[in-house]
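BACKBONE GEOMETRY TOKENS
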Amino acid sequence: MILLVRFLVRWYRTRHPAASRSADASSARPGSRGSARPARQRGATGPLGMVMHQAGYDLLSFARNRQAQFFTLLLPLLFLVIFVSIFGNSPVGPEQVRSATFFVPGIAAMGVMAPSFVNLVMSITNERESGVLKRRRATPVAAWTLIASRTLTVITVSLTVMTVLLLVGWLAYGVQVPASTIPGIFLTGLVGSACFCILGYALASVIRSAEAAQPMVQAITLPLYFISGVFVPNINLPSWLQSVASLFPVQHLADALHSAFVPGVQGTGIVWADLGVLALWALGGLVVALRRFSWVPAVVPA
């Protein structure tokens, strides 16, 4: 993940060599205050360079957080091993595919949601209530740069987790993915990650304390995992519960990923109807986030 961001930063600098040389020269001039200048003047020139520069630090922060790594990567892998071990090679799901073929895309949906929604809500709420967001907002870096870099970090981690799950499913359980659907799988992961990232900012804006973030996120995600085809095939659920699940974006993300793994599927595996629902949820979350998101603590200490 970190190597990917560094590659993109180097690529941007090669496309804009003059700006990079001038920024580096100004920071290296004797007696200059280049070391105290913002990142914009130290080589990360332009909007894209600023976003990449900040995203690199966000990825380093994630790489040093072992707890976040466990819940983001190891926990979905653990669930995959547990569920495949329980069901073995029994046919499951509406298409009656092998259990591994069903659970790999289902757990991949969880792998997309974990960094994009669960971790993001808790980290944003904690940083806001501890004053970190307020201090970051006071820096010369634009607000949209901070949000864009965090979004890029989240999407990078989500796609990385999904890729690891797909590789484990292929190498350990023989789950075959049609080559024609691979672009559709990653497009679905990208749209899903962006959608839940926006929803994460929206939910964080209505949580009043850092202590309430984790229980509130768990109260939302765990029931949706069970009724949306992530842990349990939703064909086995009562019809009214299936109707409830269809209202939320988790089922549409899981269904879109499941569709790409159906044996004999034709085309790119993109389910535009499901992606459309994710886009609508993202639009609604964007409205809430724009109206309610705050950089200052919701609870001011006495």
Summary: The radius of gyration is 21 Å.
